[in-house]
Amino acid sequence: MRQDIEEVGQTYGIEKWGAGYFSINTDGHLLVHPERGRPGADVYDLVDKLVRERKLSTPLLLRFPQILATQLKRLCAAYEAASRDAGYQGDHLPVFPMKVNPRREVVGEFLREGVGQSVGVECGSKPELYAALSLEQPAGSLLICNGFKDEGFVNLALLGTQLGKRVVLVVEKLTELKMILRRSRETGVTPWIGLRAKLYSKGSGKWSSSGGEAAKFGLTTSEILECIRLLRAEGREETLRLLHFHIGSQVTDIRRIKNAMREAARVYAKVRQMKLPVEILDIGGGLGVDYDGSRSTFEGSINYSIEEFANNVIYTLKGVCDDEQVPHPHLVTESGRVMTAYHALLVTSIRDEIETFANDRPTVVLDDDDPQVIFELNQVLGSINVKNYRELYHDALDAKDELYSQFNLGLVSLEDRAKGEVLFWEICSKVSQFAQREGINEHEFVDLQKTLASKYLCNFSLFRSAPDSWAIKQLFPIMPLHRLNEAPDTVATLVDVTCDSDGCIDRFVDVKTVKQVLEIHEFRGEPYYLGMFLVGAYQEVMGSFHNLFGIPNEAQVAIGPDGRAHVAKIIPGSRVGDMLSFARFDHRQVAESFQSQVAARVSQGALTAAAAEQVVAEYTAALQGTTYLE
Ligand SMILES: *Cc1c(COP(=O)(O)O)cnc(C)c1O
Fold it and tell me: Which residues pair with 569 in a beta bridge?
């Protein structure tokens, strides 16, 4: 039994991408361990309870705030250890970039006293800043304002300074600095100022264009010098406290970090040598998450650990500072992805299997007067074997083309077309079996396996809950939450409930390659729950309301020291009515307009008054229903 479970775990790679947060128990259920190494909670039991006792349906977002705290501790511990080893004298000041997940519960968890770290907040827009201003921050933590700014943004930031927060306005453009200095003069309020540098060094992976000469953000070398000149001319050089750069999210290759750090450290040192009080170096984000567990420079992976990242940052920075004989700066990190990705888990359920040609195969009985092409296909099916399947597969493809051209000419009946299709897919199924048995991984046969795989309909919207899977083909680990003590007996691709053919998942994480199909258990019509993991960074906020599918139900769950799950809060997902409002349908107008159509039917005599009342009541009630499948 234990061995089966281990094998199933390996199939899904849980130990590779799970970072110690997930395991499988002897019942074959998934466990979550928010405080790694402590007893875990049974996620399947939790979901089952939420569904049966709390009447929540899928999709269901499970949020484990303790994982946020654990990730923060891991991050801080890595910098602490690196600083100690290197004899680095600056402090590490972790900052949470709100862009990654602006949910109040998430930001609040980082700022909460008791997480043990003095975490700051980074915001890049007026609403983010507005929200951040409402929150109590730990004493001495930073409120960093990045992004393009107008006067309204600067004014809000100055309100923060008046509240006693350590606000840093990071200048992205020269004109911003002029505006900040003017508003500061006019109001008598003085914020700290930071400069964002455009580095020559780039990141690697999907977001490498966030860095480099052509980057959207940041000041060129001559602009930095111009800013300094401007500050001096105004006698405000004491406000320049921070230098910032960000070379992009999910940097896959550790060498890019080292290069960027070398360059940024030199920029810091040169500015510091100009007798300016810059004492903070803000290195932005970039620390990636190993979504596929391959520990490689593949897009969804990273070839380093948190510790290695921190070591590279600290050692490079110390080396350059010592060489240039400048003090070690305090170090701000904005590693939002790694702080949040692990804490959220989307649970969906399989609702059905989609019938395709490949799995809808009644038996075929040939008649003497069937067209020649049917006999050809039948003959291929009868003679196919492990030696000739490649050749006969190509014969079958030709015969299928012939079948459809004859159909289009009116030479083949609908019944014969159906027979031909069934025979063709029987052949494909055999071909695929032979190819798999021989371990052939040529495109032709891999594609065939994918075409033949079951398509399972899952109750969620990819566009709402994992938009990066669609937009940038990002891979998220997916696996069942139960039956993990049974070897998966089939393979499938997944489709969501939107009416969009892009709403499908046909690429899955694998340590060595990208899998085209997911190993899964035969759907028996009973509840079968799948988890989509590591969706805590970017997915919630970037998700859209395609087809007016709304925000999923949510449960916030804490795990006790005994491994028991405590549901701290349930937040019901969007109702049909919420989505109507989103699309600017007014509830009252909608109701009136529906009722007047009913009234017209009544006056035509097509509906009785009693039936009309029933129709209106049902319509009204549906406003409160879920947007997903019940
Ligand atoms: C997006 C962003 C971050 C977050 O980076 P991750 O690598 O995704 O954690 C940090 N800082 C800035 C300025 C950003 O724009």
Answer: 556
Q: Please tell me the distance between residue 100's alpha carbon and the centre of ligand 1 in angstroms.
A: 7
Q: What is the dihedral of CA 283, 74, 89, 267, to 10 degrees?
A: -10
Q: Which residue has its alpha carbon closest to ligand 1 atom 11? A: 284
Residues with Cβ within 8 Å of 548's Cβ and at least 6 positions away in sequence, in order, are 579, 580, 582, 583, 627
How far apart are the CA of 252 and the centre of ligand 1, in A?
A: 14
Q: What is the CATH number of the domain that holds 145?
A: 3.20.20.10
Tokens read off for 282: 């803000």
How far is the centre of ligand 1, averaged over its atoms, from the C-alpha of 307 (Å)? 19
Between the two ends of the chain, the Cα-to-Cα distance in Å is 35
Q: What is the pLDDT of residue 1?
A: 57
Q: What residues are in contact with ligand 1 under a 6 Å CB criterion?
A: 97, 99-100, 122, 146, 246, 249, 284-287, 334-337
Note the pTM of the prediction, 2 decimals: 0.94
Which atom belonging to ligand 1 lies closest to the Cα atom of 250?
7
> Residue written as tokens 């947007």?
627
285 C-alpha to ligand 1 centroid (Å): 4
User: Looking at residue 206, what is its pLDDT?
Assistant: 81
Find the 172 Cα to ligand 1 centroid distance in Å: 15
Report residues of the chain scoring pLDDT below 50.
none
What is the domain range of residue 183? 66-339
How many domains, the chain? 3
Alpha carbon nearest to ligand 1 atom 3, residue: 285
Residue pair 565/46 in contact by the 8 Å Cβ criterion: yes
Hey, what are 566's tokens? 């405590």
Distance CA 63, CA 343 (A): 6
Same domain assignment for residues 392 and 328: no
HSE-up (13 A, CA, CB side) for residue 162: 10
Give 336 Cα–ligand 1 centroid separation in angstroms: 6
**Pocket probe mutation, ligand 1, options 107, 249, 474, 539, max atoms within 8 Å of Cβ:** 249
CA distance 146 to 154: 11
Identify the pLDDT of residue 525.
87
What pLDDT does 204 receive?
A: 77
Which of 83, 124, 85 minimizes the C-alpha distance to 330?
Answer: 83
CA distances to 2, 258, 400, 581, 616 from 619, in Å: 52, 61, 48, 16, 5
Are 374 and 326 spatial neighbours (Cβ–Cβ below 8 Å)? no
Cβ–Cβ under 8 Å, residues 326 and 268:
yes
Based on the domain organization, do 197 and 259 belong to the same domain? yes
Structure tokens at 66: 């303790």
Report the alpha-carbon distance of residue 140 to residue 468 in Å, rounded: 35
**Torsion sign over Cα 195, 198, 202, 206:** positive
396 and 259, same domain (yes or no): no
* Residue at a domain's end among 450, 483, 512: 450
